[in-house]
């Protein structure tokens, strides 16, 4: 993590005062949480709608923080403390991260996309760890605050940083990529997430393509080549080095075979047709994410034949296609971290194709931030459910009722249960379990369907 004297910090961001008595003090690390401000960290307070972090500055320094930023328009900065006065604390955080990134010799992989960002980040990390010392974005630290904090947490000996880049609107990826200056950029796909803010898939693709704005001069873009909205844009950029992955044979990397296993997938690819790769992650869509990661690793000097071990040992962030052992021998696929029509349909398809289960149940909740056509998107998801492969559908939330409506022609009303009360859903679901079922649970994060997973999990 960053380790600098206060005097050095003065040269890394724009500071408006001279903390003359504290110039030699060393800060080590950065935090925005005053409760965690210890061991010489730099505390960065923000002015929020409901609270102002500046009121905790003294407390943070008294409990061990080495210094703190102070926004210029906040009155009464304490003169007896190691305070750095800046125009805007958020901008100062970003300036500091950019300066620190420029000092490091680290290679950076930037990952964005409508779906699969975190999964792909985890896979890239697993593959690159075969050869390099790697750090990655932890949790959901992928925005205008989280990404700078991730950069500032990088160790000087880290060789590759794998940074996830999220967004809700236009211009956000542009900011993040210019902070990170990636050597390799990945766009996993273009889905329907953020339609509420951006209005169309075309606008989403344009926003995701902002990732190339910070790409290093010799950098490479790796993207989903089955997506026309991306391919058309990239093919018009003659100087951009790019490689594609996908299921169509016109991609640089595509699968020759894909076999669904009860615990993951086995597949082969065109680059090394004689080698089977086993992925302990469920879903055909995750084979696509794996191929993106393989192209990244190959770009960073790892041979395809060496990647078997890295893919076999992938560990995903929690609540993403996570296997959970349930009561009475029930198996649960916990995919409750996020949802969009694309990822929801993938989860439904996965459940239908899973071998070895006589009874399969879907528990699906609202998909958020889909804009004006949100009801239609939910209805269309319901229409994709195969009544011959799925035994029961449970939905949760106002929009979930449209999933239920879309599934009626296939499942019939007697196998569909729609709820707006989570406890009522749980009680009905529990009442039909006889043992050994497969239950897939998926919704947007705001629906908190992990509570259903927790209630059904075995001791």
What is the topology?
Blueprint (H helix, E strand, L loop, with lengths): L2 E3 H4 L16 E3 L1 E2 L10 E2 L13 H6 L4 E5 L11 E4 L2 H15 L3 E6 L4 H12 L5 E3 L9 H7 L7 E5 L7 H9 L3 E4 L7 H4 L2 H8 L11 E5 L3 H8 L5 E5 L9 E7 L2 E6 L7 E3 L4 H16 L8 H5 L9 E4 L5 E5 L5 H13 L6 E6 L8 H10 L8 E5 L3 H12 L4 E4 L2 H11 L5 E5 L7 H7 L3
Structure summarized in a few sentences:
The chain is α/β, with parallel strands linked by helices. The protein has helices spanning about 5-10, 55-60, 90-105, 115-130, 145-150, 170-180, 195-200, 200-210, 230-235, 285-300, 310, 340-355, 375-385, 400-410, 420-430, 450-455; strands spanning about 5, 25-30, 30, 40-45, 65-70, 85, 105-110, 135, 160-165, 185, 220-225, 240-245, 255-260, 265-270, 275-280, 320-325, 330-335, 360-365, 390-395, 415-420, 440.
